[in-house]
């Protein structure tokens, strides 16, 4: 981006002349418009961009219109249904998004080294992780950092981190998105179990093959694909996948656990979710010699976004509390 630097007359403050000011060809409104424009590109919507920046929709639209008028190019193509980026808009985004990130980083370096961390962090995670790890530990996090506000989005459905302006998300399995940076949190082991009532009615299976024929294996439906996820078992030498055959399937972790507790069928779940229920006798572990490989969890965040002080502290805290994951 081209900046024009012109000397301007100094003003007087409290009777003394101030130092000469530097006038940039880019005004504060222009910088604000550029920030809005980058969010519109990332979200594909003026409404979502305005929401994530907490500004009125009319303001967002007006400033981007003004930016286009200043540049004398069309950056965005608007219709009643969607917003698309023009070729000029894509090129402008590529050259300005780094400016926006750099400005955020510069601003964050002033006055924060010795200041108390503050502000909002938007976090996305599943219901199981939220209820098992994050929420129980939040009181101690709040004691440590009382001025940080956690906006926790809880869903088992996939969330687009950049579009939804999420600061970080906790994800299980491999990270396939090249736009995200991942930091490992830990590995979750598996446990297969059922209620005492269910096992009294149907007996205890001796191997995974029986789950596909003589037993009700509660299905877990992928929120991403809408298909039932096969249950994987392994004894160190052999790995098998069983298609659940229950009359009931669910796409959320806590509801999947509730189905096991209700005696609907056998559940194949993460150990951290069922451990307390096994200790209380509400669930009984089975097929303990057929545990598959542990499942990896990581915290992910956009690679082209500045990591604020508060987000760094939150990620370090996540790594600390996930030491209990096994």
What does this molecule look like?
The chain has helices spanning 28-43, 46-53, 57-71, 87-108, 127-144, 196-202, 253-261, 271-279, 309-321, and strands at 5-8, 12-13, 16-17, 21-24, 76-78, 83-85, 119-125, 148-154, 168-172, 180-188, 190-194, 219-221, 228-229, 231-234, 239-242, 249-250, 267-270, 284-286, 295-302. The chain has 326 residues and is an alpha+beta fold. It folds into three domains: 5-108, Orthogonal Bundle (Arc Repressor Mutant, subunit A), CATH 1.10.10.10; 119-185 and 296-324, D-Maltodextrin-Binding Protein, domain 2; 190-293, D-Maltodextrin-Binding Protein, domain 2. The strands form seven sheets. The protein has a five-stranded mixed beta sheet with strand order 8-7-9-19-10, with helices on one face. Strands 17-11-18 form a three-stranded antiparallel beta sheet. A three-stranded mixed beta sheet has the order 13-12-16, covered by helices on one side. Mean pLDDT is 85; it is low at 1-25.
Keywords:
19 strands, alpha+beta, elongated, three-stranded antiparallel beta sheet, 326 residues, Arc Repressor Mutant, subunit A, D-Maltodextrin-Binding Protein, domain 2, 3 domains
